[in-house]
Design a protein that fits this description.
globular, 15 strands, about 30% strand, single chain, alpha+beta, 9 helices, about 350 residues, seven-stranded mixed sheet
Length: about 350
């Protein structure tokens, strides 16, 4: 068995490994993996592999990501796409590859790694990989068509196809965000947002373009709410069929001033045959207040089909332990890769 760092030339082989565990989804798509691993503006993915007879049987992946921590931009990484071939599980490859990865993170001055593991992996991250569980993302939900949503969930749950709506919005202060013509306005918006001193992904214009526009397969629509020539709110949407239910996903919502146009925008989304609209923002934030005013409620943990766990591992002595204080974090679906 050989443990090596990938030079990222084996994208086809990495997609093949993913197919040993998943029969569909972006993770088995070569174009998607090439975008995620090679085109990231914050740096190329750090991938360690276990090879047996020249065949990849396990991988551990982090992608570099810049975070705005208080008034500083910190080099960190996001853990994702951990896979071991079913025939090779239970052999310790997960732990071995992870430690190789985090040893390299230290050499590259990556100060911490954040992850959003599923329920099957969270204990491994905490008990084996020295991560701390820092919290769970809240799920906020607005039911648009309860009867159709329930019927679709009960009788069409095998349908999980991606679909896209053209969200036609006719509001005077709402328009599509164009990162070319709106670049200076967006940069000002982001500089003002960071004054809240929350801990969050550095949503530079370059990152937003890569994350939401350059991405293959998925399609997002980026809206801005503007007053007197200044962007006050950014809202990024995706539509997806989840367990047979037509969902509108507010992947990112950031506001300088919680304004009523957010509710008006969400009201217009309801005309697009959506059954549910979901989002995740910190519950004590202005963004959460916007959603609550628009009819969203927090889904009780008891009824969540999937917990949205957040874990973090510190690699550098230069990072304060306050980094694990979940109350300081501003995290949305846009901060990780599932949506």
């Amino acid at each position: 068995m050989r443990f090596i760092r990938s030079d990222l030339s084996q994208i086809n082989e990495l997609a093949e490994l993913a197919r040993s565990t998943y029969d569909k989804g972006e993770i088995i798509n070569v174009k998607y993996l090439n975008w995620e691993y090679n085109s990231n503006p914050d740096g190329k993915a750090l991938v360690f592999l276990a090879n047996e007879e020249s065949k990849i049987v396990s991988q551990y992946v982090v992608v570099p990501r810049k975070y705005s921590i208080g008034n500083e931009i910190i080099n960190a990484s996001l853990s994702l796409n951990t896979i071991t071939h079913p025939a090779h599980r239970g052999k310790g490859y997960f732990t071995k590859l992870a430690e190789l990865t985090y040893s390299e993170c230290k050499k590259l001055n990556i100060d911490f790694t954040i992850g959003f593991p599923n329920k099957n992996s969270v204990s491994g991250f905490i008990n084996k990989l020295k991560f701390s569980g820092i919290g769970e993302l809240p799920l906020m939900l607005k039911v648009v068509n309860p009867f159709r949503a329930l019927y679709s969930f009960l009788f069409n749950s095998k349908v999980r196809d991606e679909y896209t709506y053209e969200f036609n919005i006719d509001l005077p202060k709402v328009s599509l965000l164009n990162l070319n013509s709106d670049l200076h306005k967006y940069n000002y918006f982001w500089s003002e947002f960071k004054k809240r001193n929350v801990y969050t992904t550095d949503r530079s214009a370059e990152f937003i373009h890569w994350r939401y526009i350059d991405i293959p397969i998925r399609r997002y629509q980026l809206f801005k709410i503007e007053k007197n020539g200044t962007i006050e709110t950014i809202l990024i949407l995706r539509s997806k069929n989840i367990f047979g239910v037509n969902c509108g996903i507010i992947v990112d919502l950031l506001t300088l001033k919680g304004n009523r146009e957010v509710g008006q925008l969400i009201d217009q989304l309801q005309k697009n045959k959506l059954d549910l609209i979901i989002s995740s923002v910190p519950l004590d934030s202005p963004e959460a207040q916007c959603l609550k005013s628009a009819g969203f409620f927090k889904v009780p943990k008891l009824f969540m089909l999937k917990k949205l766990n957040v874990v973090l591992r510190i690699h550098s002595n230069n990072i304060s332990s306050s980094i694990t204080d979940f109350k300081k974090w501003f995290l949305t679906f846009g901060d990780y890769d599932i949506f």
